[in-house]
Amino acid sequence: MSRRHTTEEEQVLFRKTVASGATIAAAQRRSANRLAAKLDLHGLTEAMAHRALASFLEAAAGRGVRRVLVVTGRSGVLKMQVPRWLAEAGFQRLVAKIEPAERRHGGEGALYVQLRKQS
User: Fold this and answer.
1) Which of 43, 84, 110, 114 has a 20 to 30 A CA-CA distance from 77?
2) What residue spans define the domains of the chain?
3) How far is the C-alpha of 110 from the C-alpha of 83, rounded, in Å?
4) pTM of the entire structure?
């Protein structure tokens, strides 16, 4: 069985097809990770922050948002409490994943919250 050699035109077309597929996949990943909303809890009491977080996440999930930024501040009660709240049963139906924010989004004083797909 002999193999047919590909033409230069076929090779170029193949490279373009592979490159565009990779580009589309990368764009889809970026889109899924795009921040759609931000909540800044600075200056709120613990009770006010808990209510604000609950209503913010409910509203975001209701709009189909998948990733949000929650700013807690670099120190204090909210920095400690917010991750605990997000792990509670009431929030777990909304929250899929929690990650520390990149420096440009607040670093140690903020969290990315990935929301579950709502049916």
Assistant:
1) 114
2) 35-115
3) 10
4) 0.72
48-107 pLDDT, tens digit each = 999 999 999 999 999 999 999 999 998 889 999 999 999 998 899 999 999 999 999 999
- Tell me how far apart the alpha carbons of residues 75 and 81 are, in angstroms, rounded to a whole number: 11
Q: Are 101 and 110 in contact (CB under 8 A)?
A: yes
Architecture category of domain 35-115 in CATH: 2-Layer Sandwich (3.30)
pLDDT reported for residue 12: 63
Q: What is the CA radius of gyration of the chain?
A: 21
Encode the chain in three state secondary structure: CCCCCCCHHHHHHHHHHHHHHHHHHHHHHHHHCCCCEEEECCCCCHHHHHHHHHHHHHHHHHCCCCEEEEECCCCCHHHHHHHHHHHCHHHHCCEEEEEECCHHHCHHHEEEEEECCCC
Six token digits for residue 96: 């899929």
Per the structure block, which two tokens stand in for 79?
């920095």
